[in-house]
Write a structure and sequence with these properties.
Elements (H helix, E strand, L loop, with lengths): L3 E6 L10 H12 L2 E9 L7 H4 L12 H19 L5 E9 L1 H12 L3 E6 L4 H6 L2 H8 L3 E6 L1
Parallel strand pairs: 1-2, 1-4, 2-3, 4-5
Helix pairs in contact: 4-6
């Protein structure tokens, strides 16, 4: 059975994949497996998105098309996978929408991931109070989690 390495990234921050994705590729090569690249379009509560706030809207807008954002994320994931994942190690892409850590854990369960490789930044006080997504994934994942620091 092919081993599966899930690499969740934030498309807005290169630091989330600069070290984690090559590490995930190396892990897949060692395991004789494949890399699944993923991102999550976060849930944006109404009234929070700056595009609506500057127009004075407090309850979101029909212009907020989640499906379009997910489709754009899929396109960018395909580009990154083509650039950074060898064809023989490529398993697939996943673009989801919702609570970041929950969607990562769900994806790991759905693809049957054997390992999650993800980046983490240096913790700050707010991380200790709120709990970063990486820590939540590590606590709730159905498989091992390898955390790559800058």
């Amino acid at each position: 059975m092919t081993k599966k390495v899930l690499v969740p990234i934030d498309l807005e921050h290169k630091s989330s994949w600069a070290k984690a994705l090559p590490n995930g590729v190396d892990q897949a090569r060692i395991l004789g497996g494949e890399v699944w690249l993923m991102t999550v379009v976060p849930h944006i509560p109404s009234g929070i998105d700056w595009r609506y706030a500057i127009r004075g809207e407090e309850h979101g807008s029909i212009d907020y098309d989640v499906k379009e954002f997910v489709k754009q994320a899929e396109g960018r994931l395909k580009e990154l996978a083509g650039e950074l994942i060898p064809e023989d190690l490529f398993g697939g892409i996943i673009a989801a929408h919702g609570t970041i850590y929950e969607k990562i854990v769900e994806a790991a369960e759905q693809v049957g991931a054997d390992l999650i490789v993800m980046a983490a930044h240096r913790p700050s006080l707010k991380d200790y109070l709120l709990g970063p997504n990486t820590a939540r994934v590590a606590r709730h994942a159905p498989c091992s989690v390898h955390i790559v620091r800058d």
